[in-house]
Amino acid sequence: MFILKRQDVEISSMQHPKREQQIPILSYQGQTFRLISVFRANQAEEARAFWRDLTDNRGKACVLLEEPDRYSVWGKIRLEQLGAEIGPDSKIVSYTQACLLLLQTVYLDIEDLLGNRQAGLFQKDISEVFGQWHFPQADSPEAVHHLLTLDPLNSLQIPPWEEHHLITLLQELYRLGKDYFGNTNFAEGVSDILQDMPESDQTQFMEWLQSSPLGKLWR
């Protein structure tokens, strides 16, 4: 739809209708957009591919914002729709549980196949991802260790992440996994990793995954 610069837009935040959390909102020529995904400054090609896939292949109205230190993709939304954009809170909670299962599987595979030292380095790398993109409840080594070891399906302490956090996590987890393993085999067989989830939650997550460009990475 549009490729914009920071000076072209106004970025503000509003209270999430269901959570004690602020949602980033981009305004451009009377239209409003919510954050979908964030990319590093050296990921220009990935950011443009993600944006083109959403706009050209999936028919979504999106803008790509180019800033000196990052790229971000925003999807058009009417503010009155915000509470229903992702769906009930239970849905985003199950998506978060699925993403935590994928994160923990990669971490345990690194520990099993590459050893404790590499697992420690991975924990440091994923901590930097959480810090750079301001993930709630992931701002200390203890919090990250908790996320890597809790049982996502039985814990009452699932972090209050939004859809853009989950997309960023899966993008960065794919990048890190590829660096550590030297291939992308770890990103195959997602449904096997999620087999302990309720079937309806698995189905919803896989549909969400396949409806985004992430479906080309995680299968």
Describe the structure.
The protein contains seven helices and six strands; from the N terminus they run ββββαββαααααα. With 219 residues, the chain is of the alpha+beta class. The chain folds into two domains: 83 residues, Phosphorylase Kinase, domain 1 (2-Layer Sandwich); 128 residues, no CATH class. It has a six-stranded mixed sheet. The longest helix has 26 residues. The protein is globular. The relative contact order is 0.13. The model has no long low-confidence stretch (mean pLDDT 92).
What keywords describe this structure?
Phosphorylase Kinase, domain 1; 219 residues; alpha+beta; 2 domains; single chain
Radius of gyration using CA atoms only:
17 Å
Shape: globular
Termini separation: 28 Å
What's the domain count?
A: 2
Supply the number of helical segments: 7
What class would the helix/strand composition place it in?
alpha+beta
What is the N-to-C order of secondary-structure elements (H for helix, E for strand)? EEEEHEEHHHHHH
Instruction: Give the proportion of residues in helices.
Output: 40-55%
Main β-sheet description: 6 strands, mixed
- Uncertain runs with pLDDT below 50, 5 residues or more? none
Q: What's the β-strand tally?
A: 6
Strand content: 15-25%
